[in-house]
């Protein structure tokens, strides 16, 4: 049997000689919100109204929409949905951009 010689192949030459291609930037895709939106239905509105009511009852004072949302741990849109429900039922009173239980 004949022995085969093992030889190392020469490394491919570096591509340093090739000019770099200009990077093509694509337009940024619009960012999507974490939530697609608030589901507007009677069941969800009722639950959000309960969250808002509980937050106002626990605070025992008038709160802004932002404060209610933070206390209830829901978004401002969900807070507004719950507030609408409670205003329609006559459970809330408002003065100077603050809302309290009636």
Structural class: mainly alpha
What's the SSE pattern? HHHEE
- The number of helical elements comes to 3
How much beta, percentage-wise?
A: 5-15%
Number of extended strands? 2
* Shape descriptor: rod-shaped
Show unreliable segments. Answer: none
What's the end-to-end separation, in Å? 103 Å
Mean pLDDT: 82
Oligomer: single chain
Helix content: 25-40%
Model description:
This protein is mainly alpha-helical and about 100 residues long. About 40% of the residues lie in helices and about 10% in strands. It has 3 helices and 2 strands; from the N terminus they run H-H-H-E-E. It has helices spanning about 40-60, 65-70, 75-90; strands spanning about 90-95, 100. It has a two-stranded antiparallel sheet with strand order 1-2. The model has no long low-confidence stretch (mean pLDDT about 80).
Task: Give a brief outline of the structure.
By secondary structure, this protein is mostly helical.
SSE blueprint and pairings:
Elements: H1 42-59, H2 65-72, H3 76-89, E1 92-95, E2 98-101
Antiparallel strand pairs: 1-2
Helix pairs in contact: 1-2, 1-3, 2-3
What descriptive keywords fit this protein?
102 residues, mainly alpha, two-stranded antiparallel sheet, 39% helix
């Amino acid at each position: 049997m004949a022995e085969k010689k093992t030889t190392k192949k020469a490394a491919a030459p570096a591509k340093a000689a090739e000019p770099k291609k200009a990077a093509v930037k694509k337009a940024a895709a619009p960012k999507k919100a974490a939530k697609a939106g608030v589901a507007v239905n009677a069941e969800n509105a009722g639950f959000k109204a309960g969250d808002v009511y509980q937050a106002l009852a626990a605070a025992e004072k008038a709160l802004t929409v932002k404060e209610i949302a933070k206390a209830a741990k829901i978004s401002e849109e969900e807070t507004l949905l719950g507030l609408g429900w409670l205003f329609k039922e006559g459970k809330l009173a408002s003065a100077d951009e603050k809302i309290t239980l009636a």
